[in-house]
Design a protein that fits this description.
The protein contains 5 helices and 27 strands. It is an alpha+beta fold. The chain has 3 domains: 84 residues, no CATH class; 77 residues, PDZ domain (Pdz3 Domain), CATH 2.30.42; 198 residues, Thrombin, subunit H (Beta Barrel).
């Protein structure tokens, strides 16, 4: 009898240990947020998602966000999660190269320096509290749109104090600025370098066939010196062509080399940490489409990317999704490794200009390439396509609301 009791006790302890291990495993690995179709049933697996009833409505409605419970064996609560009930996005996959031209809202302070005056070296920018990364929005009550205008306003003031409105870390600030007369250049100078525009090439991820709203890059256009996201005033995208490729090697990122052809193909409306977005001037509303995968549908394993690495059409290349990290931000939801020998022979892996290349898996668009591992160019990060689709839907709604 005692032997039987000991065996039962051991079985109970083992069962409890296994359950606790599964609960811990689920708590650590299961996402904190989910997106589901209105009529989609809960997945059949060890862990299921149970919406918490909303008292005000008594039901789950499309377009809403709700609290939910992740449960083990449909019974044991593991963690709370956010449930978004959404329609499935259907888009036209991209992979083609485009050029972008972005003009900033204000001018970006790139660097500060001293000015040689008859009284010695001074730094007007530092004295005013300005620093690299600041965005100067207005000077002396005048909205600043370009570095040329900024210089003209300084010259007109002839050293008189001017109110400066600038942005730092998303907050607007004010200071008083006084240019200094340079005995070297014989004119009033600010003691700073500024930038008002940016240009480059990237890859289009997809577009909405109903209204032509597109998504690209998967990351923001940033200032090359400060690393800050460029605040956009206006911009557009143009046709581009590839002339060659600088192959990536460990320690040095590669780069697609191309140029603009001059033909505008769309507007540039948003520059965000999740990519760039706008409206195409012309598009094919009947082009072949693919569904966008929800983040919790993406899995490790075989996949493909669509990229343009020569003067031709986008091609499909084999890759492996090595890791899915739903909680990671800044375009680092997936780790992707290039396995296709054709692509490796040309680029060495992922190179600059391939950002935005759509990642395909199980017949859906699951993500977009964003960054390369500098020390391992065969590997890089990707953002969830669903995140980019959300920005497209929001922009499409804005366009609809603004239409006469």
């Amino acid at each position: 009898m005692q032997k039987t009791i000991r065996r039962l006790s051991a079985c109970v302890c083992l069962s409890v240990a296994v359950l606790l291990s599964l609960v811990v495993y689920g708590f650590v690995t299961m996402p904190d947020s989910y997106t589901r179709l209105e009529t989609e049933p809960a997945p059949r697996s060890l862990f299921t998602l149970t919406p918490v009833t909303v008292r005000q409505t008594g039901a789950i409605e499309p377009g809403g966000d709700y609290n939910a419970l992740v449960k083990l064996f449909r019974a044991i609560p593991v963690k709370r999660a956010k449930l978004t009930v959404s329609a499935r996005s259907v888009v036209v996959p991209g992979g083609g190269i485009f050029g972008l031209r972005l003009y900033t809202a204000g001018v970006i302070v790139v660097e500060t320096e001293t000015v040689e005056t008859e009284n010695g070296s001074v730094s007007p920018a530092k004295e005013a509290g300005l620093q690299p990364g600041d965005v100067i929005l207005s000077l002396g009550g005048e909205t600043v749109r370009s570095h040329t205008q900024f210089s003209a306003l300084l010259a007109d003031a002839e050293g008189a104090p001017l109110e400066v409105v600038f942005q730092r870390d998303g907050l607007q600030k004010k200071t008083t600025f006084r240019a200094a007369y340079s005995t070297v250049y014989e004119r009033y100078m600010a003691g700073l370098w500024v930038r008002d525009s940016a240009a480059g090439i990237g890859t289009m991820t997809f577009y909405d066939p109903e209204n032509g709203v597109y998504a690209g890059l998967g990351h923001a256009v940033c200032d090359v010196d400060t690393g800050e996201v460029l605040p956009m005033y206006e911009g557009d995208i143009v046709a581009a062509t590839i002339h060659g490729c600088k192959k990536g090697v460990p320690g040095q990122a590669g780069e697609l080399r191309g140029s603009f052809t001059g033909e505008r193909i769309g507007t540039l409306a948003l520059n965000t940490n999740s990519g760039v977005y706008g409206v195409l001037d012309d598009w094919d509303g009947n082009a072949a489409t693919l569904e966008v995968a929800f983040p919790d549908e993406v899995e490790t394993g075989d996949a493909q990317i669509l990229s343009t690495v020569n003067d031709g059409a986008p091609q499909a290349f084999n890759v492996t999704i090595e890791k899915v990290a739903p909680r990671d931000g800044e375009g680092r939801n997936l780790i992707v490794r290039v396995t296709d020998e054709r692509l490796l022979a040309v680029t060495g892996g992922i190179v600059q200009g391939m950002s935005g290349s759509p990642v395909l898996q199980n017949g859906r668009i699951v993500g977009a390439i964003t960054h390369v591992f500098v020390n391992d160019p065969q590997r890089g990060y990707a953002i969830f396509a669903q995140t980019m689709a959300g920005f497209c839907r929001a922009l499409a709604q804005e366009e609809t609301d603004a239409a006469p």
